[in-house]
Amino acid sequence: MNRTIKYFREAIKLVWQSAPGWALTNFSISLVRSFLPLVLIWLLKGLIDGITRAVSEAPQTSIDNIIWLIVAVVIVWFLDEAFTDFGNFVRKKQSMKLEAYMYNLLHAKAVKLDLINFEKPEYFDCLARAAREAPWRPNSILNNLVSMVRGLLSLILMAGVLITLHWTIAVLLLVFNIPGIWLRLHYAGVLYNFQRQQTPEARKTSYFNWLLTGDRPSREIRLFGLGNYFISLFRKSFLKTKEEEIRIVKKRALIELVSDLFKAAAVLVTLLFIASRTVDGTISLGQMAMFLMAFRQGMVCIKDLLGSVAGLYEDSLFIGDTFEFLNLKENIQAVQPVVLPEALKKSISADNLSFTYPGNLISTIDNISFEIKKGEIMALVGPNGAGKSTLVRLLCRLYDPDSGSIKYDGNDIKNMDPEQYRKFFSVVFQDFMLYNLNAGENIRLGNIDELNPDEKLSSAASITGINDLIRNLPNGYSTLIGNLFDDSRELSWGEWQKLALARALFRDAPVLILDEPSSALDADTEFDIFSRFRNIVKGRTTILISHRFSNVSLADRIMVLDKGKIIESGTHDELMKMGGMYFNMYSKQTSRFTR
Length: 595
Description:
The protein is α/β, with parallel strands linked by helices. The protein is built from 22 helices and 12 strands.
């Protein structure tokens, strides 16, 4: 309960921080609207009594004496409608402000969280729940709170009117709605617990939907005839969650029927009481109308109040999912004493480095040590799963090691701000990104802060052989790339890789890491790039990961990894003389071309 109250306070704080002016306006309008129904039924009571007197005392007289009441009723009715319409606009505007604010918090947190989170299924569950609730749930809390205050205030006013008739009528109005209050609160908790438990299954449903509708899987789905298979998997997963939810809602609906019977009994007793008092002349027709409208308005207020209280309780449960995500700890931070990184002067070294992915029993990197000197070209080779790409992520401090250290010019990188440290690295990842932006932006993303990018764009594109293709596009470097948007031009996988390589070269970083940078390049482009490789990377410390040993042989030093360990290290000639793993891998690959 304490945590729920805490999250409730935090949610209200978020609403206020996102748009204080609109939040205050929303609350003020709701307060005004709370009093308008009371004013309206009081005026209608006076109008009915005035008409009754006029008919009974002086039939066929003018309505001059009651014209002001008619005008007042119309004015109050108009104000109620106007405030309702304006309130809808205010809530919509505030909702937009809050949604943008919450998306900003969500995205800012997502890009700062440690990359290792993406190796944990529970992180995706947490992210899915937060993404589902964060944009609108805090605003729902405010709207339910405002509605609750308005409903409670209106209910008190209506109860006050009914007390003037008889106190038992006001008690009936309240007591006979207690079952409904309990019901809404109870099932709000039941549905929340159910939806939280079903998050993994809901993600599975979403995944099957993506397989059936996404671009990337579309080719294999058709080629292998997998459509009906994944349709059946989607349907099974979808119905598994929805049928259980329907069962809960059905049970709630049946119990609500009992609650409605209590309300009907309250209405029956009230109508009989008011009718009898009117017939015996205790109250006037105007008073009868006022009490009936007050009771009816009180029932509406209770319904709104019930909905608001249940909504607040539900919101307080679900908003916890958002704060659970926002409160995730960021472990990759600068550790004291903080050192400001500068361009590499000496070397990068690893000392007894080990790393194991969450849930794995075997280390991906197992107690390795090495040093890469400034300006050196180091190649990493080894079989799939040897730990090459993982080592790159450790060097860039996308992961922190389980043990051991990485030092940049003799300083432990844990003592450096990760964002500042990463600015000195430029990487082409094996699974590089395809940005559906224009061609120029695709390259400029390598250094988005570059003030004069035009000349460097052409230079980076020329090195990778993509410049001529870009200039021949309809709008040159301003042409949209990809197939998601209108007026765009799709590229081949090799052309996308050229763009990714240009993006890495555009970033003027002292350390360049290339993870399979030529896997999709045509033979001519690959030959052109690697024949000029030393000039291209001149002055940069370079780490090259490749299974193409003709390219690897250009490196100053080659490090062979197997099962997370460094088993060989040396130049191409030295490793060939050893006759070990490198010799065997190189011989097998080159033998295909020498037969």
